[in-house]
Write a structure and sequence with these properties.
Elements: E1 3-5, H1 8-15, H2 18-23, E2 33-37, E3 53-56, E4 59-60, H3 66-69, E5 80-81, E6 101-103, H4 110-114, H5 116-126, E7 136-139, H6 143-154, E8 160-164, H7 167-176, E9 180-183, H8 189-196, E10 202-207, H9 214-220, E11 222-230, H10 242-247, E12 251-254, H11 262-273, H12 275-282, E13 285-290, H13 294-302, E14 308-312
Parallel strand pairs: 7-8, 7-10, 8-9, 10-11, 11-12, 13-14
Antiparallel strand pairs: 1-2, 1-14, 2-3, 3-6, 4-5
Helix pairs in contact: 5-6, 5-11, 6-7
Length: 316
């Protein structure tokens, strides 16, 4: 192991809250965002060699259910989560099925490789619908929302508006490519539409927060026929104006994880060919902390700043 990212899931495990107690098969080693070097391959493994620099898909699938057999592995009904139900990446070594390993291009740094998992969530969300010339609304500017902004800009969106309640995150959203930002605690999203000269609402929405107010606000600001990709996971139910969804002919699609392995291919291709995108995604990394100072790294991640915390496992 060379680098690992600290995810919000890992913070839940550290706190051992009700979710962790119900979801985690303890005792186990957490961690599912990683970049490492292959030191051994099993018999029958092809296209992966000792010395390769790799990350890996953290959803380990059965291979035999209907979705797996149809090539929709991300929809496997028997998915096992790395670092959740199986020992994960916060260790010097990790064993992973060869089918889950992704070999990186040389342009991908260890730090970028360590965030391919959350970047994959952003890419899966952002590329759900065609973006060229479309007006995009992104609700929530955590690391995944910020990366989705950068991907949307790279993929040809026209205007991008981002919302949050954190001034530092909104400033980072501008740096990632947002044309307008809205602190929804003091402004209305329609203000951004007016500032950009929009007259018909947003074509595409990325709901990244799970906040009860976010999806209803997004629906209120979509153009007729608008399409929403929803990654944010609500902690409780909330009301939605289903009448507007029907009469405005909106589409909402749930997003979970990454498409295996089209999302990975898209990530690798975009980063290989675009230094601009590599630089933008790299801005999401707030700090690289020696693994021996892991407690400090987790404390930094818990502070909920604008970026990702990476642990460097070459410094134990």
């Amino acid at each position: 192991m060379l680098r690992t990212g600290i995810c919000g899931t890992d913070l839940h495990i550290l706190r051992w809250d009700d979710w962790a107690a119900s979801a985690i098969a303890a005792p186990l080693i957490p961690g599912h965002e990683f970049y490492g070097e292959v030191v051994e391959v099993g018999p029958g493994v092809h296209d992966i060699a000792v010395g390769d620099r790799v990350s890996g898909e953290g959803h380990i699938v059965c291979g035999t259910c209907r979705n797996c057999r149809a090539g929709r592995r991300q929809m496997c009904i028997r998915t096992i989560g790395l670092g959740l139900q199986r020992d994960g990446a916060f260790a010097e070594y990790l064993a992973l099925p060869a089918t889950n390993v992704w070999v990186h291009h040389s342009e991908v740094t260890p730090e970028l490789g360590a965030i391919f998992d959350p970047l994959g969530n952003a890419v899966h969300t952002a590329l759900t619908y065609p973006l060229v010339g479309e007006d995009v609304l992104v609700t929530a500017c955590g690391p995944i929302g910020l990366m989705a902004i950068a991907v949307a800009r790279h993929a040809g969106a026209r205007f991008i508006t981002a919302t949050d309640v954190s001034a530092p995150r909104l400033e980072m959203a501008r740096r990632m490519g947002a044309d307008e930002v809205v602190d929804v605690s003091v402004r209305d999203i329609r203000d951004a539409q007016q500032a950009l000269g929009m007259r018909e609402g947003f074509d595409i929405g990325f709901e990244m927060s799970g906040a009860p107010s976010a999806l209803p606000a997004m629906i209120d600001n979509m153009n007729h026929g608008g399409r929403i990709a929803m990654l944010g996971l609500p902690s409780a139910g909330f009301g939605v104006d289903w009448g507007k969804l029907v009469t405005h002919m909106l589409t909402i699609k749930g997003i979970y994880g990454r498409e295996m392995f089209e999302t990975w291919n898209a990530m690798g291709a975009m980063l290989q060919t675009s230094a601009t995108l590599r630089d933008a995604i790299g801005r999401v990394i707030a700090e690289v902390v020696p693994a021996r100072d892991g407690e400090r790294g987790f404390a930094a991640a818990e502070s909920a700043g604008t970026g990702k915390i990476i642990l460097d496992w070459t410094e134990l």
